[in-house]
Structures are given as structure tokens and as C-alpha cells.
């Protein structure tokens, strides 16, 4: 296994290409930034001052005008009227009659004195000096002062003073310092300058981001992380997991069901890197908690930690990545109240389409004839076909669209939210309540005495209170949770869908004309309508209560920058499932008597009452955390440190066995040391030392370190020349190790199980002999956590005056010690049960990137564009299984999750071709699928199965969306896409007549099939037969379809009323009216069902389109 790992090449071989592309982008953006002045239009009118004119020019064109007060008197006012006039013409007019000239330098207009211009150009250099201070009038050391003409620069000293040689009075100086707005001044006649800096409150360099067990300034972070704005999560869906994939780089995710209350998406960070659990660790307000039912309105930040530097502090739980969610807290100021109400209708994105009864009968006859060429009597007579087509006898010749019978055209949802926040310097609060109600698409029987419709209700609440007990002591209280109540049919959704797929349209009517409920007497075929409406109902009740208290103490009295924090949380989860099942008398009509009355046999005897059964579940969790933090800046040096202890105890409140009754426990230490020099050179080290009771005492704890370095290249002096084009450029690299304790299998796997004995297999013929005594069952050897080595290279770039930002991450992971049952020992060795151990290994590599463009255009219009992409590919290095006979069968070196099956070459076109082809099982005729004989032995069997397609989980997930705003209007959209994924088709309803009789519906795609009259070489269906008398429906590349799609996930139109007198009269500060559409359109070549449902036959509750209108009022 180590050899395999050493052979793997790092993805950094593409690094020179990345640098080249980055250089090309910088040069391109530099060229783009050279906007031609004559192409800029200006609209201004009125009697205004020069400063007002120049402010208008800057807003409309982006050009900043620099001038000396000795040339222009700002108290003077001039009357102008320009309507879309070129910038150069505007300047010519306002400077007309004055001894003034001007020139353009990038995005600047420099105003010059004509009389001195010639002299100025030949001015000898001279020295200027000055002082720089901040908003508090305190000196600022380390400020960069650069001459525009000479390019020479200096830095202010400890007293904030500087001296610099300039190229004359026409020169200009640029002052820049991290965290402050840059300042530019023209030298003119001044020789001594006093420059004041303003804090750049919106500067991304000052942005604070959430990291593991704390926060950091974004400029100094080294770990790979991505985030999504809380505003982007406020969509008309109940389940938060359905909004993450495609909105956050690094997330691979798909939604496999749209059923209310059961519509969780599968979420993975940078894909799957193991054979066991790949679920990420999710922390809400610092505690491990589920997040699918959190109200998006209560979220303040949503962050995804992706590499080892970001997740090492979580130790044995960090290998699959971490999601950090922080809920909103109050702030000082006036009390603020927000209320929101919205609602709308829902409908399916796409339902599978089935053939009607006539088509079913005709194709059934064709299949029967193909399988029984010597039988002249058709399976169904023409009389039966005519009766079905004409509807003359719906009792004995029905034609039922079962999906039309069980589904409504529309469902609906509604939502109400109210929150309040505010406080003083001593206390701040945030309170919110929310209600969500969704009705599903299933029909109900209005005459039934119970309700079997799908209806999901949820009540959310969040309460956060911060008390500043003293100037150095802060206490945070938090309580939140939700209660949900779901009503469902007595039979599960899966059973009802299966019945609709299995029941043909011609077998039974929904009900007979005399009111009897219909039911065939064949196997597990049920009437979908009675299963939905006449089988009782089920109720699911869930509640979650989250609570925590945190005490923070500033210890500047000991040393500046030192603080401690302690947190305790208690969470309680309860779930109850109540089933009230029943059944009805059902019948099958066998014909009519001489009087024309229907003749029946009873298929089943029903019950006249609702039964009762109950299942309970729940858990209690206690969490304790204590930490020491250090954060201090010494001149240009910033040092931060963290040491943290935590412990989690979770108890299964309704344990069903002794093992489950033992508390689940995690305990450990975490630490971080970070250093930054002048926000330019960065270094960081993290560690986690923790463990789980799942493992043997000697193997429970592990040490997981990580290291990272960063370089903010844009802060170097040599970068000043292109800083107008590229304002920020940062490189970072991290390496570390993390673990995964979710290894699957039996809990306490290191303890072997012992059982009594049946036979023992041994001998040449695998003979079974009964030997008395005991034998080992499952057992494992030195079981411990999985270990992942992770590498990450990140590049951050901002350009076009910070309007464009790009973050790109290249990553690689080497996962070892994956828990596997050894399968490489042959049976004749005589070991009945092979041991489990940490044997497997998988390598994963990929790239993710985020692009953000936000540009004001003119005074009232703003354009934005966001996008992200994630691609990964995991490769099996060791699966602890026996080698396969042929190279194409090997799993080692293949993509994790790779499909295997027969390689379809097309369809047989003649009997001669069949005779000259390798042997295939069954009766083969022209129109049957022809497979490739990979090993050349003259027969098609399991040795000819090879890799086909990509797999059910996409390798690539991406998303993008434009936003437009004009005055009080805003319009936005978001598109989500996945690619490098496919769908394997299988199952009842998809495979026609596999069981011979009337079992299995028939998809509408049956119209595209091979027949002697339509010998299409590549139809959807090959030759149709009765029963499984050939290999047409074996797993093969024929039935693997492209699963890529692009979905218009959201469209939102909003109008905001502000500053209206009628708003003020009712105490409102603003009022929004909006429309939100969700899943409105899907673009894909796959048309059988909603493409995101994935493999099989589409027999899941489809995803939903939503059309919602709402109103939001702020007080």
C-alpha cells in the first residue's frame, strides 16, 4: 500500500500553468482597466461647485479628478447642463477661459496650470515630507508612500513621518496601508503634507471569518474555506441541505427526493474519499447538531472548512470536512422588528410518463409473439384492445393512468417569520419564531374519516442573549430548536410509488362501477389508490431543543490579548412515529354472467378499524468546552494562539440493546498558533489530540497536526505598479493529517463476537462438517480511526478595483486505514469469518474555485455575478479484496464508485451476425443487445464486465447567478449544475414484461424500440420479449445514461419601499414585496424523470417547482 501511495503524483505539476494563467489574467485585467475617456458619458445639470461636478464625474465614469485649490476655487459655482456628453467635452467646457490644462493617467484626471506646465515638466526633483495619522489623530507607522512619476517609495516611521524625493510639482503621492482607504494627493506647491487615513470598513482585508473554534481576519487565514451569504439561503424550501450544493465551492451534493419532511440532500465536502461514512461534521454555534431544519432567517454565517489546516483541530472527526453555522445575535441600538409572510404553489419538476392501455396491450402482444413465434393466438385479442381504446367496459377493460389517479396537479406551502433584535451596551438580544407549512401532491379520499395526505408543519424558534456583565466579562445565552409534525399515508411513499410502477394500466380499474375496491390476486401487486387513501395514515412528531451558555473573560490585566472562554450545552432530541394502519375489502372481477353482471372473487379481507403502533427515538447530548485564547499585535507582528479542551457525551434515550445504551463519547485537546508579519507573511500550525470510546483503550487517542504558510504578494513593493489593476494577490499552502472515527460496522468492533456452532467449511470441495463448540463471529484487529493526509494550494485574487474576486484551490488527499472486511484470503485456508481491520486506502484530488463580481454602473444600477465550481476524483488504492482475473476487472486504480457492467456494442442486425458472435445466454435474435467479449473466450459472462460510465455521484458540481439592481428594484437568479455523472436504469416498470405476465408498467419511451419494421440501430429499447429469455436487461453500458443537468434553481424579483411617509406613519422603516421561483426549469438530455433522482426507475417522490409571493416589513 505504501508503494501505491508513493507512486501518486502531486497535482502541483500543473502549478506552472496556473501561474501562467494568473499572469495572463493580471495582464488582461490591467489592459481592461485602461478605460478610454472619450467613451465615457456624463449627465450633469445645475448651478454647482467644482467638487460637486467632480463627484458626479467619478460616480458616472470612475475617473477621479485631482486638482489644487490654488487653481480652482471650490466656493465658485458654475451653471452647466450636460446630457450624455463625452467626458473630454465636459472638462473642456468647465475649464474654458481658464489657464488650466488636464491629462488622463489610468483612472485619474490631473488638473495642471498651463502657465507652469512647461516649467513643471522640467522641474528638478525635490524632497517632500509629512506625517500620516488615523481617524483618532494618532500617528500611523508603516504606511507606504509612493511617487506616481518616479515609482520610488518609502514608509512612515514610528512617529508616522516620511521623506521622499518627487519629480516636481506635477507629481502625485499615493498613500496606502492595510485596513485603510488609500489616499492620493498632487504635490503642487506643497513641500510638507499632513495626511489623514479613514478605516476601510468595507475593505475585504478587514473582514473577519469564522474558523475552527474561533474567528480570524480574512487576510491572515491560511486554511481552505468557503462561505455563502445568509441572504442566499432564504429560499422557499424547508430543508437547508437542498440549497448548499452549487452555492458553496467544495460541496458535492445531490437531492434524491422531494417528499416533504424526507427531502434531505446528500452532502459531501470535496467528494467521497472512503468506503465508510463520508458525512461532514456539522457544528451549529460551536456544537455538533443537525442543520437541515434550521430556519435560514436565523443564520448569520455559513462556512465550509475543507483542508487539514482548517479541520485539524477537530482531530478524529475532521477528515470529511466541517460545516460551521453561526446563528444571529443582537447588537446595540434601537429595537428592530422584522415580519415576513409568503406562500405559493408547488408542482413536480418532472413525473415519469407511462404508456396508455392500448399501447400496453399492443406491445405486450408484440413481446409475446417475439418469445413464442410458433403461437398464432395473440396475448390480447383485438376486441380487448378496442374495448380499452373506446372505454366501453372500464371494469374489465380499464385504461388507468395511475399517476393521474394518485397525484394532484399542485401542492402548496406557506411560511411566517417574525424576529426582533436590539439592545444597549450592557445587553443585546435576538429573538425569532417561524412557521412553515407544506402540503404534498398526493390525493385523498374526501369520504374517509381520516386524512392521509402529506402535510409537513414545522415551528422554529431562536433566542440569543448577550450580557456584558463587566467591561471584561461577557455571558452569552442561547436557546433554539424546532418542532415538526408530519402526516403521511399509511403506506410509505416508496410503497405507493412501487405499486404505481408495478401495476399496468389494463389490469384493474381504480374502483369497480358497483363501488368495490379492486385488487389483483397476484403477488405483491397492490392497487395504488387504495394503498394511498384506504390504508390509514401515519404521523411523525419530532422535536429538537438546543441550549448553551458561554462565559468569556478578557485577561488583559495579566497580559494584553489574553482571554479565556468556557461553554456548556445541553441538547435534547425526541421523535415519535405513530402508525394507524387499516385495509379494505377488495375484489377482482373475473367476468360477467349471462345477465351482464360482474362476477367477483375476493382478493383480500379488510379491517373496519384503524390499528395502532408506535416507535420512539431520541437522544440527549452534553457538551463541555474550555479554551484559552491569545491575540496580540506588536508593531508589524500579529500572534494568535488557542488551547482548547472539549468533551461530548451523547445518550440514546430509547436504546434497544446494551451496546446502544452506553453513552457515545468524544474527548480531546485542540490548539492553534498563527503568526503574521505586516499582514504579508503568514504561518500557522494546528493540532487536534482526541479520541473516541469506539476504539480499544490503547488505540483511542490520536494526534493530528497541520501546518500552513501564506504570502500576500500584493503587499510587496514591487507590486505597486500593477495595484490599480490587481489590488490583492495571496498564495497559501497547507499540509496536515486528520481522522475519521465514523468507520462503519459494529460499534466496539475491537471486541469479537462469539456464537454457537453450525458447520465448518473446509476441504477441497468446501465440504461442510458439523463440529460442536463455539466460533468467532465478527472481529477486528487493532481497529482505530481512518487517517487522511491533506494538501492544499490556494490562490486569492481581487482586481478591477475590488469589483472582481477569484479564489482557486487545488487539493489532494491520501486516505488510509479505511475499515474493511478482509477479502483476499481464499476459502480453502479454512477461516470461516475473515477479520476486519484498517486496510483500505483511497486517494482524492481536485480543484474548487469561487468567482464574485460586484460592480456599480452609474448612480442607480448595480450588476453582480457569482459562480463556483468543484471537481474531484477519488481513486481506490487498496480495497483489501482478492485480485480479479483480468485487468479490466480490477478495482484498484479505478475511480471510487466506478460502475462495472457489460460493454454494449450495439444491436444484432441478423441471424448470421449472431452465429458469428461470442455466445450469449438465452435466445438471441436480431434487435437484441450485442456485448463485447473482452477476454476472447468466445462467451459473454461475468469476466467480460468492465468499467462503464462515471457513477451515481457527480464529479463536478457548479453554480452561477447574475444579480441586477436599479433603484428600489432587484432581480437575481441562480443556476445549479452537475456533470460527469450518469444514471443506471433498472427495476420494475422500466424493464417491460420481465416477469412474463401483467406485472410492471410500461414507460412511454417504449415507442422508441427496435422492431423488424423499425430496425433502428440505436433505439431506447432493444427487441421486446416476454420473460427474461435473453441478456437485454443485464447491467451494461446500454442502460447507463448521461445524468448531467443545469437547473434554474432560483429566480427572485424584489421591490423595496423606503422613506415613504405612509411607512413612517405605521412605524415601518422599509417594506419589501417579492416573488421567488424555485426549480423553475431543468436543462438535461435525460427525460424519463427528474434527472437528480438518480439510478433505478425514478420511483421516488419527485423534486418540486415552487412559485412563491411574499411581503417583508421592517420596523
Automatic annotation (TrEMBL):
The keyword Nucleotide-binding does not apply. It is found in: Cell outer membrane. Coiled coil: none annotated. InterPro entries: CarboxyPept-like_regulatory (IPR008969), Plug_dom (IPR012910), Plug_dom_sf (IPR037066), Secretin/TonB_short_N (IPR011662), TonB-dep_OMP_SusC/RagA (IPR023996), TonB-dep_OMP_SusC/RagA_CS (IPR023997), TonB-dep_rcpt-like (IPR039426). The keyword tRNA processing does not apply. Keywords: Cell outer membrane, Membrane, Transmembrane, Transmembrane beta strand, Transport. Residues 63-115 form the Secretin/TonB short N-terminal domain. GO terms for cellular component: cell outer membrane. SUPFAM superfamilies: Carboxypeptidase regulatory domain-like, Porins. It holds the Pfam family CarbopepD_reg_2. Gene3D superfamilies: TonB-dependent receptor, plug domain. Belongs to the TonB-dependent receptor family. It is a multi-pass membrane protein. This is SusC/RagA family TonB-linked outer membrane protein.
